[in-house]
Amino acid sequence: MRIFIAADVSAKAGIIKLQQEIMSNTWSSSEASPVERNNFHFVLMFLGEQDEGMVGRIKAKLSELKFEPIRLTYAGITGYPEPDSASTIGLGVDEQSGWRLTDLAAKVAAKMKEVGIEPDKPFVPRITIFHAKDRPLEVGRAFAKYRGKTFGSDLVDKIHIRKTSSQPGRFYSDVFTVNAVKKQS
User: Fold this and answer.
1) CATH of domain 2-179
2) pLDDT per position as a tens digit, 76-88
3) Of 158, 88, 160, 162, which is closest to residue 126 (Cα–Cα)?
4) Distance CA 44, CA 7 (A)
């Protein structure tokens, strides 16, 4: 199965409002496709095609992971792979949230290294909110008005092994979940 490790997004209303604003002011539905609310997530690490035996080892290692809930603030819109020629549009987080998510991704990568899986690229703290349809999108000038703005806050308190569906479109299902440990008071 094709899998990745993801952190959930629970505060979806503000992201959907942002998507609607962007679609009404920036692109048409023939240019960009908004990501559906049930597909919002941070990809902590892509694991690729794995057999059932390896998935079992991944679950065991991930269950050893201890992390506290992460309070984050959404900020910044970016296009990738390049801002002026983007096939995907992402919503980022503020600097402090980025550090915390990057630390969590590093802990995940360390656990996966123990089963022989290395990250294929560095972690970037963002969630995908749009996909370009037929041609890349220019993001820089289009999103200048959003610089310095925040788009709500959220709490990351669980991570999942997610499976990508083989059906057309983007469908994911959770294979395994690890909950954050609550802070000791």
Assistant:
1) 3.90.1140.10
2) 898 888 877 899 9
3) 88
4) 7
